[in-house]
Amino acid sequence: MKSAASKKHLIQLFLAIALGLSGAVYAQTGTGYKVIETVAHNPDYFTQGLELHDGLMFESSGRYGKSKVRKYRPDSDDTLHEVPLAERLFAEGLTIFDNELFLLTWKENTLLVLDTDKLNIKREHTYKGEGWGLASDGKQLIMSDGSDTITFRNPGTFAVEREIKVHFQQHTVQRLNELEFAQGYLWANIWLAPVIVKIKPTTGEVVAFYDFTELVAQHSNGNNERVLNGIAYDTEKEAFWITGKLWPKRYLVSLD
């Protein structure tokens, strides 16, 4: 169990990074996670979405003219199938619902629905605003747009059915990016922060946060694009696969 002082430092770290507060000084603290496995990851992938489904990993890579989607086995980085997207599209978060892959785009107001076999586009839906992260609780699709708002959407029409405002104590939490739904909670990367937050899906309350500063430092090399991004829950191992944009490694971690 962390001491009261340690918890205080963690809160300071979270608030400073996630809420954009400046001038904070924080001490070295426990990270709240344990690395179980480490495997190779394509360092050219600007990782946006990560999803484990039926024993296969699905991943989207962003940037205009370079966006693509691929699938591979979680214990390696050998791509089984990869499909490039149109140059006008910037791929964002993805999830799988009812054996179909749902993929957001950044500013194109377009949701792509692909088959999970050949990754061919089957249909499209439109939405307002930006697309960042996407997950599913088995009933609805769950979307982030970079703000503190998470929307729960109809899988058939992509219409908004409800929304929550993500907050920690009295503070709003913004820049919510890649999403994953697991263990009854919503997990989210925060863009530009080495933090994963655990969110109560009924209220939007952040109930835990995990500091990956040390892990991110191994990959950033002074490049602020190489941020932590990508969360995929492994139900068999009861742990999370995580990675980052342009990272050469992917990690299976347990979260305290």
What can you see in these coordinates?
There is one protein chain. The protein is mainly beta and 256 residues long. The chain has one domain (4-255): TolB, C-terminal domain (Neuraminidase), CATH 2.120.10. 9% of the residues lie in helices and 48% in strands. The chain is built from two helices and 22 strands. The protein has a four-stranded antiparallel sheet with strand order 1-22-21-20, with no helix packed on it. A four-stranded antiparallel sheet has the order 2-3-4-5, with no helix packed on it. Strands 6-7-8-9 form a four-stranded antiparallel sheet, with no helix packed on it. A hairpin with a 6-residue loop joins strand 18 and strand 19 (206-211). It is globular, with a radius of gyration of 17 Å.
What key phrases describe this protein's structure?
256 residues; mainly beta; Neuraminidase; four-stranded antiparallel beta sheet; 22 strands; globular
SSE layout and pairing:
Layout lengths: L3 H15 L14 E8 L6 E7 L2 E6 L6 E5 L6 E6 L6 E7 L2 E6 L4 E6 L5 E6 L7 E3 L4 E4 L4 E5 L6 E6 L1 E2 L2 E2 L3 E7 L2 E6 L4 E5 L6 E6 L1 H8 L7 E7 L4 E6 L4 E7 L1
Antiparallel strand pairs: 1-22, 2-3, 3-4, 4-5, 6-7, 7-8, 8-9, 10-11, 11-12, 12-13, 14-15, 16-17, 17-18, 18-19, 20-21, 21-22
